[in-house]
Design brief:
- This protein has about 350 residues and is α+β, with helices and mostly antiparallel strands.
- Among the domains are: about 50 residues, no CATH class; about 170 residues, no CATH class.
- The chain contains 8 helices and 8 strands, in the order H-H-H-H-H-H-H-E-E-E-H-E-E-E-E-E.
- The strands form 3 sheets. Strands 1-2-4-5 form a 4-stranded antiparallel β-sheet, with helices on one face. Strands 3-8 form a two-stranded antiparallel sheet.
- A hairpin with a 4-residue loop joins strand 4 and strand 5.
- Helix 1 packs parallel to helix 3 and helix 4 packs antiparallel against helix 5.
- The longest helix has about 50 residues.
- It is elongated, with a radius of gyration of 28 Å.
Amino acid sequence: MTPLSGNEEQLIFDYCFGLTSEERTAQVKALIACNERAADIHARIQAALGPLESLHPEPCPEELAERTIGRLIEAKLARSGQEKLNAVLEKERTRFPTMKFSFWGNFGDVVAAAAVVMLLAAVLVPSLGYARQKYWQQRCQVQLGSIFQGLSSYVSDHNGRLPAVGRKAGDPWWKVGCPGDENHSNTRPAWLLVKNDYVGPEKFVCPAARQADKPQFGTLQVQNYDDFPGRAHMGFSFRVCCPKAEISSLNGREVFMADMNPLAERFPSDYSSPVKIRLSDEMLTFNSANHNRRGQNMMFCDGSIQFTKTRYVGDPQDDIFLLQEMQCGCEVNGCEVPSCETDVFLF
């Protein structure tokens, strides 16, 4: 057999694992067709990988993922920092025996080990994706819990009254960050929690948002604003109440706030332009963008927080991101309000 160079052997190995470009693939196919040594190596690798074709990746059991993410959050939130994290890792490490592997002795061992790596990747990559989702969902819930704590303190200090500003029916609830004294946007009551030092402004940005989308708060002069400076500084939506009734307490299972309404993505940054947004089928079904459309966290008036893959709550089911009369093809101008107390609408 004609000997192969190290680069040629590596090329065959990469080809078998799908790591070659179109140009390299054509090159290695030609090499296998004309060189017995190359054909032999290719056949041996394929034989080692063959049994993997019958295996199907399975998601990580939810119980294991929940426990893992819970331990990570526990370690991150603990005041003891790195010491606590090491303790958690050591606790998990002692639950399983240590496995030791000898160094690869020959080419066959290399192929077998690579096959194991491929198998683990096929099983673990989807599981890690699921674990990441659960991690950000729980981080978001922790942050919503901090907002509720600040809200509860505000209510306690203000004779049981929720933060509120003077708004009337017909005011544009979508104008977050609009300059001026008018109490237009639906986020001005929440800004009172920031302005009065009950909740830090960074808590109102969902932690699941991309780092590039997160605003910096170092230069934010809170007392100079009457509302969040812009939509980028607010990652959640709040209840728009019926003019006939406001949420009067922090009791019950009414939805108080949730991850950002997908409708907010459609409103312009120019506050002077008239708004006419025509609802499409997608806008009627999208989940919040905060968690890559997989669902949204909802915070209820009793402080409970729940992640759900649907936009609907209650019985009968009510879409939290739309008014009951909003249907496909309807135009939204950003001034509508619920017509009854049971119509939950968050923005």
